[in-house]
């Protein structure tokens, strides 16, 4: 491990440090900051975790949150992330530590002040991100037990959003909330167009949900599948006109919301999945 120099002691277990390349990092370790002073060289044996600090106003705000938070909170937040990371196959980004610290610091403060926690997309996050929600529930249970508090189910929904957001380096929380809204709206388009309820326990539903999650991420990032396989597109469109119309409605929705016009390939993949989740009467 490269040598690091203390810039600022945040608390007994967290230190803002500088690398030989003059990059700021936060080093975590039990008692790491207890006897440290600015300019000291950190003992690598005491360092348990290192977080890169981005040079941005948001990063500076996160540092202030960490500095003003109770000393028990940073290691507790990291343990919650480690637990969730196992369930998500190690896909969580390092920056989740800062955003989740920021969120939980205020969530716990609101609880002690008696301010109700709301999550108007709770039903949707439970429906579209069941794995993240289950892990978030575990996190809430841990927080409630460790801190002798009683955060509600709505807080599990909020943490689940952070877990969804923490699996990509591109989307921010605003985009994550938008993606959940888009999932809700697209499934409503399908429901009212076909006048059916999709079986959420079916494998085809799970495949379609996964496709839509990546589809929405592509739309938000303004990138699309474009292989121009017009022959297959025309075949599927001719055989399944009702499913083609549904894909068009989804395309019109995306155009109105994001000003993105779907390629024929995106429409084709939507049709293929729609045929699987909403079979025709002859099938």
Q: Which terms summarize this structure?
A:
283 residues; alpha+beta; Transcription Regulation, Sacy, Chain A; PTS-regulatory domain, PRD; 3 domains; 4-stranded antiparallel β-sheet; elongated
Q: How would you portray this structure in words?
A:
- The protein has helices at 57-68, 73-87, 96-112, 122-128, 130-147, 153-165, 173-194, 203-220, 230-239, 241-258, 264-277; strands at 5-9, 14-18, 24-28, 49-52.
- Strand 1 and strand 2 (14-18) form a beta hairpin.
- The protein contains 11 helices and 4 strands.
- Helix 4 packs across helix 5 (130-147).
- It has 3 domains: 5-53, CAT RNA-binding domain (Transcription Regulation, Sacy, Chain A, Roll), CATH 2.30.24.10; 73-165, PRD domain (PTS-regulatory domain, PRD, Orthogonal Bundle), CATH 1.10.1790; 183-277, PTS-regulatory domain, PRD, CATH 1.10.1790.
- The radius of gyration is 23 Å and the shape is elongated.
- The model has no long low-confidence stretch (mean pLDDT 90).
- With 283 residues, the chain is α+β, with helices and mostly antiparallel strands.
- Strands 1-2-3-4 form a 4-stranded antiparallel β-sheet, with no helix packed on it.
């Amino acid at each position: 491990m490269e040598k690091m120099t203390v810039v600022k002691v945040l608390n007994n277990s967290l230190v803002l440090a500088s690398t030989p390349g003059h990059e700021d990092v936060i080093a975590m370790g039990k008692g790491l900051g207890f006897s440290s002073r600015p300019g000291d060289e950190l003992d690598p044996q005491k360092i348990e975790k290192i977080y890169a600090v981005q040079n941005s106003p948001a990063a500076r705000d996160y540092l202030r949150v960490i500095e003003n938070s109770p000393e028990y909170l940073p290691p507790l937040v990291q343990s919650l992330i480690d637990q969730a990371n196992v369930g998500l196959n190690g896909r969580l980004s390092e920056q989740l530590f800062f955003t989740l610290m920021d969120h939980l610091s205020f969530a716990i403060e609101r609880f002690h002040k008696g301010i109700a926690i709301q999550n108007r997309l709770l039903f949707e996050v439970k429906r579209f991100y069941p794995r993240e929600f289950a892990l978030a529930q575990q996190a809430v249970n841990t927080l409630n037990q460790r801190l002798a508090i009683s955060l509600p189910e709505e807080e599990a929904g909020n943490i689940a959003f952070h877990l969804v957001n923490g699996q990509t380096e591109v989307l921010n929380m605003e985009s994550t909330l938008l993606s959940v809204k888009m999932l809700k709206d697209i499934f409503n388009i399908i429901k009212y167009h076909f006048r059916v309820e999709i079986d959420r326990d079916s494998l085809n539903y799970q495949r379609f949900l996964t496709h839509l999650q990546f589809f929405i991420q592509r739309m938000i990032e303004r990138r699309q599948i474009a292989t121009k396989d017009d022959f297959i597109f025309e075949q599927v469109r001719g055989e399944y006109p009702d499913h083609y119309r549904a894909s068009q409605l989804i395309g019109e929705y995306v155009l109105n919301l994001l000003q993105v016009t779907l390629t024929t390939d995106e429409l084709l993949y939507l049709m293929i999945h729609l045929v699987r989740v909403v079979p025709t009467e002859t099938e």
